[in-house]
Amino acid sequence: MHWTQWLTLGFQIMPLFFLAGGHAAGGSWARARAAGGTPAGWLGRRALRLLLPVAVYSGAVLLAVGVCTAAGVDADTLALVGWAMGMQFWFLPVYLLLSALTPVLYAAHLRWGARVPPVLGAVALVADVLVVAVHPPWVGLLNYVLVWGVAYQLGFCWRDGLLTGRRLVPLAMAAGGVLAFAALVALGPFPVSLIRVTGQSPSNTDPPSAAMLAWLVAQAGVSLLAAAPLRRLLDRERVWRAVRPVGAASMTLYLWHMLPVLVVAAAFYLTGLAPEPALGSAAWWALRVPWLLVLGALLAGVVRALRPLGRGLGVLYERTVPDAGLRGAWPLWAGLALAVTALARFAVRGFAPDGRFPVLPAVGLALGTVLVALARRTAAERLERPEAARAPDRV
Q1: Is 295 buried (19+), middle (13-18) or exposed (0-12) by CB count in 10 A?
Q2: Complete DSSP assignment for 313-351
Q3: In terms of CB atoms within 10 Å, which of 35, 184, 301, 376 comes out highest?
Q4: What does the domain layout of the chain look like in residue ranges?
Q5: From CA 126, how far away is CA 38, in angstroms rounded?
Q6: Membrane-crossing residues (predicted)?
Q7: Which residues are CB-contacts of 62 (< 8 A; sequence separation ≥ 6)?
Q8: Maximum Cα–Cα distance for the chain, whole Å?
Q9: Residue 205 in 3-state DSSP?
């Protein structure tokens, strides 16, 4: 329904993920560098922390795809389910690329400070003009790094206090971003929806558009204004006790949140147990309440059931994590390239493209994860810089 597209202004929170990611990565890289860590060592540790749970999730989905393929499940149904289980993966290759670029981006931040995000944004605008006007192949892919890179770079600025010295700065970001978004939607070719709508062109997310960039700046400004009161709220022990477990389960929620949707849909709709009133009718809206409650309960059960797996992955991470002082080891870079390519493939085509098992992406993700886990410094490097191996790296 067209009017519900306005709700995406509140539901589209990916700018906040990249803003918080930049804030965390800037601090982590600054600490690692001060302790004698290297870019390769730092990146290997961060990449592995993401890739281990992703590999487990992907392995489970791929196993299900293989079983369903052997059982003769309808190819179109399998392709749709495989796409639904992989559509959130677009975030991972973008975030891994920004992580790989963090030492360079942070060096630019230390030299030019708050001037870097506007420059990235200007280049993104040029790329978006080309996408809308000329439709050149592959140019739009740049904006996945440029637009989300603006939020990532703003995270550096936030951490180092460049945006919080005066209240006027976040106010200007919030107001300017909202006004720019309104102008781009009213006068330009961009839709209001901040999620992809079938048949809608151009899209604000695929690739990220100038309108998404404007809303990103607005969200960052609002976040800066809200940060201080929210920190005071989180200082209350009861609130922190409630928030902390959700934060600890964030990766599980991110990876597995579509599973309850598919299970409940299959159990209630494919079997005819649930009524299917007309879309947008009063009965349809009334059914959203039990639908969300059932999904929430099932998701809570999934998260609880996966807790032992999370603890096991934590142990595996500590045993296989690359050394903080790792230098330019080829397994790390080769593994990262394979993993990014495979994750991008899953994000675009799903886990069962055309109803078939995706052999090459599956092998690429598995091999890439193993290579990142195998990255180590040589014995000579350990003897040369033993202090780096002992340096803590808070990821």
Answers
A1: middle
A2: HHHHHHHHPPPTT--S-HHHHHHHHHHHHHHHHHHHH-S
A3: 184
A4: 2-247+324-390
A5: 34
A6: 6-29, 50-73, 85-106, 118-135, 141-158, 170-190, 210-230, 251-270, 282-303, 324-347, 359-375
A7: 351, 357, 358, 362
A8: 71
A9: strand
3-state SS class at 394: coil
For residues 244 and 185, give the distance between their C-alpha atoms in angstroms, rounded to a whole number.
38
Q: Structure tokens of 377?
A: 């410094």
Amino acid at 166: R
Q: What are phi and psi of 205, to 5 degrees?
A: -120, -15
Characterize 61-96 residue by residue with b for buried, 16 or more Cβ atoms within 10 angstroms of its Cβ, and e for exposed.
bbebbeebeeeebeeeebbebbbbbbeebbbbbbbb
Full DSSP string of 125-167: HHHHHHHHHT--TTHHHHHHHHHHHHHHHHHHHHHTTTTTSST
Return the closest-CA partner of residue 152 out of 191, 194, 208. 208
Q: Which residues pair with 130 in a beta bridge?
A: none
Contact 382, 389 (CB under 8 A): yes
- Detail the DSSP E strand segments found in the chain: none
Q: Please tell me the number of Cα atoms within 13 Å of 255 on its side-chain side.
A: 22
Compute the distance between CA of residue 45 and CA of residue 369 in angstroms, rounded to an integer.
12
CB 368 within 8 A of CB 343: no
CB crowding 355-374: b at 16 or more within 10 Å, else e: bebbeebbebbbebbbbbbe
Residue 202 near residue 154 (C-beta atoms within 8 A)? no
Is-contact 181 175, C-beta < 8 A?
A: no
Cβ neighbors of 373 (< 8 A, separation 6 or more) are 48, 51, 52, 320, 322, 335
Q: What SS3 class is residue 254? A: helix
pLDDT digit string, tens, across residues 27-72: 999 999 998 888 988 999 999 999 999 999 999 999 999 999 999 8
User: Each residue of 341-391: pLDDT tens digit?
Assistant: 999 999 999 999 999 999 999 999 999 999 998 876 543 344 444 444 444
Question: Which of 179-193, 259-273, 381-395 tops mean pLDDT?
Answer: 179-193
